[in-house]
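User: I'll paste a sequence; please echo it back and then give the predicted structure.

Assistant: Echoing your sequence first, then the prediction.
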Amino acid sequence: MKSLALLGSTGSIGTSTLNIVGQFPDRFNIKTLTAKHNVKLLAEQIHLFQPEMVAVFDEQSAKGLRSLLPKSHKVTIMHGTEGYAAAAAWPDVDTTIGAMVGAAGLEPVLEAIAAGKQIALANKETLVMAGALVTTAVKDKGIALLPIDSEHSAIFQCLQGHRDGDLEKILLTASGGPFLNLPSSAFDGITPDQALKHPNWEMGAKITIDSATLMNKGLEVIEAKWLFDLNVEQIEVIVHPQSIIHSMVAYCDGSILAQMGVPDMRQAITYALSYPERLPLKQPLPDLSAIGRLTFQDPDLSRFPCLGLAFDACREGGTMPAVLNAANEVAVEAFLSNKIRFTSIPKVIDATMNMHNLIQNPDLETILCADAWARQAAGSLVEAQDGAG
């Protein structure tokens, strides 16, 4: 029986993880859950999975959650950064699952690593912002860092049983999002509702917009650099609209290994939680004859400049990836709130990066300061935009 701390239980990864725990109650049990403000769903999860402790964003949410639970319920409820840290490092937890959205997931994951927990990571921003700090801490503790992102899980699976020195490069596949074939002249008119309609995957709002701009793939490039100890020249992005091949690994002898499956995050989550075993998930295999063909094309960086900006940040290193990530979070939220156009997202990010004074080899405090600076700078740029109307 493996005991789990689930950070971000009410999001898409969190709910999929709990679906898996429900399928395999003899293999996993939930010790802690965290959420932001969705206390109604969290209360339902508490009823079903009986965690010892939960954490929410603020005191108001904590009070709201308590009001939804029977007075006899003994679950410990905490809030804020202290609560998230406690949930991540809770005693008797074997594996902490990092599935919080955005930069907020960094510090709880570091707390879990410091406590010696195995890490199953879906929160790519953790490695984007502080890849060097996280990977060094993992090595120092001698613990596992297992990927949950479908692309990085695919790469991890394709690397099993092969020598590190034989790797030539990895190929991260991208669906291309909902606007793959939309003329760039129409991008100014894209609405949030249109951008939230992903053709293949069911995800949260922020990651769905990132997929539409290809920033999600850019963040995955930076994440892959740290997960697999690569240089940026060893990472290639290729658009694969069917989302059946989740990613590939190329070896020095000309071989390419691909991991395939239906577009469903549960396989990647289950593999991270059960590794090195595979559990009988009863997930359907891709119907290849019905699909007919699998196609590939290069990403168009002129239409999707966010991907190029992420490659730039990866090459520059230091605090630049944290700045990229923070500016993107601000710009995406502004777009979802109809404050800026879809085409303004990369403009806000690019301008913020250009204003930043890069610091190499940053410590955590420096990274967090860069994140805060970038949010303020990007917010000022958003205010200066004409709006989305």
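DSSP finds 16 helices and eleven strands in the chain. The radius of gyration is 20 Å.
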